[in-house]
Each structure stands twice: as structure tokens, then as C-alpha cells.
């Protein structure tokens, strides 16, 4: 029995080490087109995996533990046109350099930023004004950001809670075609029914810890039961609820 336990521990440690070796580091540097100067405090987002970092004084933002082979990178900085790019992750470390172009200094900065936000959040605001779904607005998110994103969502959306693994689940009964029952479902659905989460229109991997997303980077949240979700965000019937996160830009 001791040999079996020891062997299992060795195997688990080997698998964990293998996974750790496979995870890569992504280094994103952001500079200015005209003179190559580094841009500090630019927002760098990986929307498909829900990660956000800001560049340091040297224009660098570092993401560790990247397991995806291809990632989309979005870069935003006040006073600059945004950048958007897909790259392949190769080797242990992949470096990507962005050069952003300054927007015209003759434009009113406040008006430009408001216009960009209005465009980015147009569909969110339209549905909110129509009363479709359930919404958590920016002022609430700002006031309660210390809870973390998962607890904030669970406290404002009825029927949503955090399960024993720390994942958001819906307390609705699973769809009839889920014959395996709650206790045997994959981890993010244990103790309830699965939730599909989107960030700026991209569906997040179900294994992503939502508390890695800073609530202060989120401008609004909307929630729907699966049958009532907007058609472009309506996944397969194996989820009970859809949550849409919209970031600040």
C-alpha cells in the first residue's frame, strides 16, 4: 500500500512538473511609432484567456503560465491608437513588440475617450436601456471591487454561487440531456449547472480563475439564462447561464 501511495505521489509530481515546463512566458513591450520611446501604464489584454497587465516604466508587460499556442493581444494607451494582434507562443519565452501611433493632438482628449468607450460598449448599453437581462453597472463594480470578481457576480445575480472549487455555477437544474448528474460533471460545473463567461465578446476557457481579472478593469456585466442570451453569445445547451463582461478601454 505504501508503495502504491508513493508511486501515485511521484506520478502526480511528475505530471505537475511537466505542466509547469509546458507553460510559457509572454513578454509584451509597447513603444511609440515616431521615436520608439517606451509607453508606461499601457493596458495589455489577452482576451481569450482573461488576463490583463499594465506596462511598467520600460514598456514591458509580462504574462506567465501561458498554455495556449496562439493568443490574441490587445494594447490600449491613453492618447494612442489601439493595437490588436495574434501571435504564436513558441518556446519557453515569446517576446512581442507593439508600436502605437499617437492620436492627433488637436482632438479633444475627453471627447475621443468617450467616443471610443461608447463604441466598445454600444451593445451592452443598448440591452441595458431595453431592460434585457440583468446588469451590474460600473458604479456598483467600483464600490464592491474588493470582493473579487466571482463574489461580486454571485452577490448580484440570483441563482449564481461559487462552488467548492471556487468556480461560478448556476443553481438551475442541468439540461435534461445531461444524464451524468451534477456530481460527475467536469470541475467548473460541480454543485450546479455550467456558466459560459465572455470577455469583450470572446468566450473564456472554463478553467480560468475569474478572480485573476481585476474588477476595476470591468465597465459592466450582464447576465442571461441560456434561452434568453443574445444570439451571438448563445452557446450549446450544456450551460444554464451566460455572463458577459465588458472591459474599460
Task: Please outline what is shown here.
This protein is of the alpha+beta class. The chain is 22% helix and 31% strand.
How are the elements arranged and paired?
Elements: H1 2-22, E1 24-32, E2 43-46, E3 51-54, E4 60-66, E5 70-76, E6 83-88, E7 93-100, H2 109-120, H3 122-130, E8 134-136, H4 138-143, H5 149-156, E9 160-162, E10 168-170, E11 195-199, E12 202-203, E13 218-225, E14 241-247
Parallel strand pairs: 1-7, 11-14
Antiparallel strand pairs: 1-4, 2-3, 2-5, 5-6, 8-13, 9-10, 11-12, 13-14
Structural category is alpha+beta
Give the overall form.
globular
How would you spell out the order of helices and strands? HEEEEEEEHHEHHEEEEEE
Strand content: 25-35%
Strand arrangement, major sheet: 8-13-14-11-12
Please state the CA-atom Rg, rounded to the nearest Å: 21 Å
In this structure, how is the largest beta sheet organized? 5 strands, mixed
Domain count: the total is: 2
Any idea of the CATH topology of the largest domain?
A: Ferric Hydroxamate Uptake Protein, Chain A, domain 1
CATH class of the largest domain: Mainly Beta
Global mean pLDDT: 78
Unreliable parts: 2-21, 105-117, 179-185
CATH architecture of the largest domain: Beta Complex
Number of helices: 5
What's the end-to-end separation, in Å? 57 Å
Quantity of strands, as a count:
14
Residues in helices, as a percent range: 10-25%
Amino acid at each position: 500500500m505504501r508503495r502504491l501511495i508513493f508511486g501515485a505521489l511521484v506520478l502526480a509530481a511528475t505530471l505537475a512538473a511537466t505542466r509547469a515546463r509546458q507553460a510559457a512566458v509572454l513578454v509584451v513591450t509597447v513603444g511609440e511609432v515616431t521615436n520608439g520611446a517606451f509607453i508606461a501604464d499601457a493596458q495589455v489584454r489577452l482576451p481569450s484567456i482573461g488576463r490583463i497587465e499594465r506596462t511598467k516604466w520600460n514598456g514591458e508587460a509580462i504574462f506567465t503560465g501561458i498554455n495556449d499556442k496562439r493568443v490574441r493581444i490587445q494594447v490600449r494607451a491613453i492618447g494612442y491608437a489601439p493595437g490588436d494582434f495574434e501571435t504564436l507562443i513558441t518556446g519557453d519565452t515569446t517576446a512581442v513588440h507593439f508600436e502605437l501611433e499617437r492620436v492627433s493632438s488637436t482632438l479633444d482628449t475627453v471627447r475621443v475617450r468617450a467616443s471610443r468607450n461608447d463604441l466598445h460598449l454600444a451593445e451592452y448599453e443598448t440591452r441595458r436601456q431595453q431592460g434585457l437581462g440583468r446588469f451590474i453597472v460600473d458604479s456598483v463594480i467600483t464600490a464592491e471591487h474588493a470582493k473579487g470578481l466571482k463574489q461580486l457576480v454571485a452577490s448580484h445575480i440570483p441563482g449564481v454561487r461559487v462552488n467548492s472549487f471556487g468556480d461560478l455555477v448556476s443553481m438551475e437544474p442541468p439540461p435534461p440531456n445531461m444524464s451524468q448528474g451534477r456530481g460527475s460533471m467536469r470541475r467548473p460545473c460541480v454543485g450546479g449547472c455550467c456558466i459560459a463567461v465572455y470577455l469583450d465578446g470572446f468566450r473564456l476557457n472554463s478553467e480560468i480563475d475569474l478572480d485573476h481579472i481585476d474588477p476595476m478593469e470591468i465597465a459592466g456585466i450582464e447576465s442571461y439564462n441560456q434561452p434568453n442570451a443574445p444570439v451571438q453569445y448563445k452557446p450549446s445547451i450544456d450551460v444554464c447561464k451566460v455572463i458577459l463582461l465588458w472591459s474599460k478601454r
